[in-house]
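We examine the record.

___
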Amino acid sequence: MTVRGGAPAGLARFARGAGSAPGPIADVAAPAPPAAPVERCELCAERLDDRHGHIADLEQRAIRCTCRACYLLFTREEAGGGRYRAIPDRVLHDPAHPLSRAGWERLQIPVAVAFFLTATASPSEAETVTVTEAETVTETVTRAEGGGARTTVSAFYPGPAGATECLLDLDAWNRLREEHPLLAEAVPDVEAIVVRCDAGNRDCYLVPIDVCYELVGRLRLQWRGFDGGEQARAGIDEFFDTLRRRARGFDPASSPAGGPR
């Protein structure tokens, strides 16, 4: 058998007999695998490790990966003119006020898993009249927080197309906030409330917003068929198991709304 030059290096041992001197083909090295791209801070270009921080870019409505130094810079709300906000890493639950099925059903969310985001409204959004349906249902609500910044509340659920916004009954949401202080604790723009309410689970957590988008990305990859399939359901179980391990108890008496991170 004739072995021509340029054959893969893995075939070199078949190109020479046992005990023979290595030929030129033995010196042909396999091409090195491409190096993994280096992830860098999106503000200063510092190299990032696996456990880096995130900030919210409020102007672009985007999440940015940052080094520790840049992350700490934007833990103060006034830093950067208010454009960037560091995303906290806390996960909270409130075992003293468990979510009831009746409370969840009042929201009329058509799925078992959803997350709720409170965002600071831009000046143009603050002047927008809320869209209504049947007089009580709106996508978002614009309100003043203690005479300060105006905010909007939106509901989303993850699925094969990403995060889908759904209509939110604001009267029901406000009643639920009164019954469950944890819902009012999320810091606008950087934290969210994620809920799972199905036949066997009633979970409610305050989480960083990047955790919500992690769930969205995971389900886009895992979703199969009409209802997501077994892999997506297992992914949801794993997601909430992780939150359960990370969460610490919420004490309304010691942590006012929008409290410490």
